[in-house]
């Protein structure tokens, strides 16, 4: 009798735990991590200014052929996108040559 009771209890416990494991996991821990690109909201780009160092990397370079507003950059120049603006930058001194909004 004792073995039968133990077997019934273990079988019931096994069924309960498997159904609990099959339930969907609702792990809504409200930690929404947003890793957006650096954006300086106050930036008012003007020709002659120096481009910030974080925008000088290849990460922000833009190919002019994909955008109608951008012309082909000259030798020693390239386009970057910063805060929704397109900046034509001098490769040597990193000065802004032209701003397209």
Automatic annotation (TrEMBL):
Recorded superkingdom: Bacteria
Keyword annotations of the record: Signal
Alphabetized InterPro entries for the sequence: RcnB
A Pfam family that the UniProt record links to this protein: RcnB
Signal peptide: 1-22
Name by which UniProt lists this protein: RcnB family protein
Source organism per UniProt: Acinetobacter soli
